[in-house]
Amino acid sequence: MESIGEMLKKAMADSLKDQERPAGAESAQELADRAIKDPDVQKFLKEHASELSKQAVQDSMTNICEFYLQKTSPVKAIADYQAELFMNGPLIGVRYLPTAAKRQRDEERAAESRIELIDMPKKLRRITLTDLDKGDPGRNAALLAVGKFLDEYEKHHTAKGLYLTGDFGVGKTYIMAGLANRVAKNGGKVIFLHLPTFISGLSSHFSDNSLQREIQRVASCDVLILDDIGAETLSQWSRDDVLGVILQARMDNDLATCFTSNMEMDDLEDHFASTKNAVDPVKAARLMQRVRYLAKEIIVTGRNRRLN
Ligand code: ADP
Ligand code: MG
């Protein structure tokens, strides 16, 4: 940053050497006259009139000119930063602050880094609640519930989750993506996980230690969204020692947990009961109690949007 100042000072000093100035080029005095008339400079001088002597303004002329040149030049000294005047003791300084566009991009990037998609399409990062069309009455209950969830989550850093159920293609995953992106924008860490793929990859992808760490991570994020619960093929082990453990931890720690499913909750209980080699209604009921404790069931209806 200093180097720009130095560079400009040199340029100004050069232009002071009037004899060497090519015909038609602007003198330092002319530049200073233009700079001082700039509306932003005038505004700054007015705001700080009580702190500034005439001498101080004169002594700050290099900085005022630097500000003016940076403001009016289409080529910025530092991309994405804009010059700003500030009171630097008794004098006027110039500093560089990120532009609004850069701040917004940085915030978006930070929000993206707070959402972890596991086995989910990347395009879901771009879905915002405002993008979701509101015209479809079959989705209104879900959108209202999402609004309530977010209000409560913002107040208490936790909230009872949502269990969106409905046919394939009605937009459940999209609505959850909107919710996830809003939570992340406000600073929450979200894991959005496609449960069937996650479960089927468990044994092959993880050594014992890394599996325990992965379960721990999923169990402890601020908001967990399990997409397509009910479509996974469960073994007793993945039901009780993976899914059961994750849901129990989330209950114990009051962590917000949401689901999407093609199955209504009552059917999900039957699905949990029959694993590969056994039928176990007691364990299924226990798991289902956790799901019901964690989330409120909402039915989403509408056309299949994949068939447009
Ligand atoms: P579900 O999870 O209920 O099976 P999705 O959320 O995956 O359904 O939505 C299916 C497809 O419909 C998406 O891939 C997307 O192309 C489209 N879609 C869903 N919701 C919307 C929406 N609100 N606006 C525009 N397109 C949507
Ligand atoms: Mg889906």
TrEMBL record:
Domain spans labelled AAA+ ATPase: 158-269
GO-annotated molecular function: ATP binding
UniProt-listed Gene3D superfamilies: P-loop containing nucleotide triphosphate hydrolases
InterPro entries tied to this protein: AAA+_ATPase (IPR003593), DnaI_N (IPR009928), IstB_ATP-bd (IPR002611), P-loop_NTPase (IPR027417)
GO BP terms, alphabetized: DNA replication
Biased composition (Basic and acidic residues): 7-23
Chain segments carrying region Disordered: 1-32
CDD domains the UniProt entry points to: AAA
Name the UniProt record assigns to this protein: Primosomal protein DnaI
Gene name as annotated: dnaI
